[in-house]
Amino acid sequence: MSRVLFVNPPSAIAVYDSSKIRVAITSAPFVTLASLAGAVLASGNEACIADLMVETRPFEALRQRLSEFRPDIVGVTFTTPLWSEARKIAGLVREALPSAMLVAGGVHACALTEEVLRSGYDVVVLGEGERTIVDLCSGAPLAGIPGLAWLE
Question: pLDDT value at position 54?
């Protein structure tokens, strides 16, 4: 059984604060991570979501969640404006749980896959990840999992 922590990076509102698209950024829960967590739970594995946007001290909250939940896999979704936060999350995960698999998803990871992989993420999920994350939980070889990119 695998334990998967899904992370929504902090600061989306602050990043977009001075932008004209600020009105389109909501503080609603991130449904994508709930859908992924549901797929993990339905497959008999454990899942937890860390929505760092709602935390007053997001990186401290992440450290605590990593320490308490001890995930085998950490999945982070992000857009380009949140790339710097995603890199910081990768560093925190590597420091706290060096053997955890770091999985990136979202628009930036799909568009700039090699850059993301060279920054410390182990794999990038290309497109929808509900099946891919379940395959990762099963321990299937990376080469046998569709929708996945990694460095060799």
Answer: 85
CB 142 within 8 A of CB 123: yes
Give the long-range contacts of residues 97-104, CB within 8 A, separation 24 or more: 97/66, 97/70, 97/71, 100/71, 100/72, 100/73, 100/74, 101/72, 101/73, 101/74, 101/136, 102/74, 102/76, 103/73, 103/74, 103/75, 103/76, 103/133, 103/136, 104/75, 104/76, 104/77, 104/78
CA atoms within 13 A on the CB side of 130: 10
Residue 106 has pLDDT above 60, yes or no: yes
42-97: pLDDT as tens digits? 999 999 999 998 888 999 999 999 999 999 999 999 989 899 999 999 999 999 99
pTM for this structure? 0.89
